[in-house]
Structure formats: structure tokens, C-alpha cells
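Reopening: C-alpha cells for the flavin-adenine dinucleotide complex, inputs below.
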Amino acid sequence: MNGMTRRERQVTDMQEIIKILDNSKVLHLGMIDGDEPYVVPMNYGYTLDGDKLTLWLHGARQGRKIDAMRANPKVFFEMEYGIEPFEGEVACKYGITYSSIMGRGTAHIIEDIEEKKSALKYLMKTQTGKDFDFEDKMASVVGVIRIDVLEYTAKCRPLPKK
Ligand SMILES: Cc1cc2nc3c(=O)[nH]c(=O)nc-3n(C[C@H](O)[C@H](O)[C@H](O)COP(=O)(O)OP(=O)(O)OC[C@H]3O[C@@H](n4cnc5c(N)ncnc54)[C@H](O)[C@@H]3O)c2cc1C
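Re-run output (same inputs, fresh job):
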């Protein structure tokens, strides 16, 4: 990915990255649908193996996003939290705080029932902080997507110093 223009705002500390992953709750998933971009907001779960990030999504087994990612599994995502508008003395000093992650990856539509059940556990853990168990029947009726994240960056814009 390109270098970040406001490099001083880049976040590399894993604890900070985990905070963003835990708190954002919704990601915006960008896909390539034919020759057009297509973006869908979705809840997600995540797992980290060292700094290797995997995202877990669930939803209907049909629809435009499933068709788009079957045809082209390349995806891009963004998530953010800590949104707080702030004021300034002049218009260009107004702004908004945020912590965000963006990255690119490859989407895989999961059919294996054990992997689907694990994915739903990860999703519920990220969304609620609680542990849930899933039966085969529950997992078999939903579509589950794994995003193998190839590259990601994190950024934080804090409140400006007074
Ligand atoms: C905060 C939030 C969290 C969500 N979490 C999930 C989730 O975890 N899993 C999940 O599957 N879905 C989630 N949704 C719904 C999701 O955004 C899509 O509506 C849904 O996944 C269907 O996508 P699709 O491509 O299959 O659309 P289709 O049902 O195939 O519809 C195609 C067309 O419908 C319109 N459309 C579809 N979705 C939306 C939308 N959200 N807003 C406006 N127009 C729309 C668009 O014009 C699109 O081209 C969430 C939505 C929000 C706002």
C-alpha cells in the first residue's frame, strides 16, 4: 500500500491496533463488482496470529457482495472508532478524532462447518466480548466469509493540543 501522508499519525503499537479492532464493531468492505467499486458495512470478528490479521464476516448466502467476491476475491476494508468532532477558531481548525485501520485482503467463502462455527464464535467475541457456542444447524444456514488480510495500516487522530 502507499505510504501514509501524515506519518506521525500512523499507529504501529499492537496494543493500540487491538483496541481499534475491539472497538470499531463495523467495517466497510470494498469489493470490485465487475468494473465498479461496491462497499458494504458489516459487523466482523477478528483473529490475530502475531500481527497476521484474519477477519470473519457472516450474512446471507446470496446477494450482490457474495456474487462480487466470488467473481473477484480481492477486497479492501476500513474500520474506525473514537469519532469525536472538535471545534476551532476558524473553519479549517474544526475536525474529528478517530482511530482507524485499513487494509487489503482476499475473501474466501467458507463451507467447512467446523470453520464456520469457529468464525461465528470469533465474530460474537469481537462484537460482545462474550463466548458463544454454535451448533451445526445454526452455522449451516448462514454464509461465512474469511478475509485473509495481506496488508494493513492503522492511524489515529487525537484531539489537538490546546
Ligand atoms: C451497521 C451495519 C452493520 C451490518 N452488518 C452486517 C453483517 O454483519 N452482515 C451482513 O451480511 N450484512 C450486514 N449489514 C447489512 C449490509 O450492509 C448489506 O445490506 C447486506 O449484507 C446485503 O448486502 P448485499 O451485497 O448482499 O446486498 P443485496 O441484498 O444483494 O442488495 C443489493 C443492493 O441493495 C442496496 N443495499 C444493500 N445493502 C444496503 C445497505 N446496507 N444500505 C443501503 N442500500 C443497500 C444496494 O443498492 C445494493 O446494490 C449491516 C449494515 C449496517 C448498516
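The CA atoms of residues 115 and 144 lie 9 Å apart. Residues 26, 40-43, 58-60, 63-65 surround flavin-adenine dinucleotide (CB under 6 Å). Marking as resolved unless the reporter disagrees.
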